[in-house]
Design goal:
This protein has three helices and twelve strands, in the order H-E-E-E-E-E-H-E-H-E-E-E-E-E-E. It is mainly beta. The chain has one domain: Electron Transport, Fmn-binding Protein, Chain A (Pnp Oxidase, Chain A). The strands form three sheets. The chain has a seven-stranded antiparallel β-sheet. The longest helix is centred in the first third of the chain and has 9 residues, at 28-36.
Length: 194
């Protein structure tokens, strides 16, 4: 009795990734247009410098990473002085700006030497980091979890050790290079302070 000759199985080609291996990155203009279409909240990331003074910068690249353990991330220009201070102190605070605080965002995005000269702050309850209490809808104070270089930025991941949120004001939003507000609701404390 003869058996039929099996038909050879063709070598599989993974069509999902084949083009990805040779695809080139988009140009800067396309990148900015695509990412500018994504609405984001606006934060000011803060820490303390080696002399214990406050430092910070405006950041629209912030998001949650994990609920258990509670992790968030921010993306920081790898040449930033504030990044060096975050890595040195091992701590950062993420201040989520409230509506009508465009001037705070612009101030912390500027090249001003002392960005805290015109902006009042209070120490956070656990780590004593700069909290822009009069200008935020929420803040999270974090212990540095890890830092990963990605292109010209560093992805800083923090373990949230304290913070609070209130809904008496809406957050400041940024979309296509313009600011906007968001509707409000009742106050809510999400985490312990102090």
């Amino acid at each position: 009795m003869s058996h039929p000759t099996p038909t050879p199985t063709p070598t599989p080609t993974d069509h999902r990734t084949a083009p990805a291996a040779t695809a080139r990155p988009v140009d800067t203009e396309t990148f900015r247009a695509v990412m500018g279409a994504l609405p984001t909240g606006v934060t000011v990331v803060t820490t303390l410098d080696s002399q214990g003074g406050p430092c910070g910068f405006t950041c629209s690249a912030a998001c949650s990473v994990s609920q258990e353990p509670p992790l968030l991330l921010v993306c920081v220009n790898s040449r930033s002085k504030v990044l060096r201070e975050i890595l040195g102190t091992g701590a950062l605070a993420v201040n989520v700006l409230r509506d009508s605080r465009e001037w705070v965002s612009s101030h912390f995005a500027s090249r001003a030497e002392d960005r805290f000269a015109e902006v009042a702050w209070e120490p956070t309850g656990t780590l004593g980091l700069p909290w822009l209490a009069d200008h935020t809808v929420a803040y999270a104070e974090c212990r540095l979890h890890s830092a990963i270089t990605a292109g010209d930025h560093t992805v800083v991941i923090g373990t949230i050790v304290g913070g609070a949120a209130r809904q008496s004001h809406g957050p400041l939003m940024y979309w296509r290079r313009e600011y906007a507000g968001w509707p409000t609701g009742p106050d809510l404390t999400l985490a312990t302070e102090g």
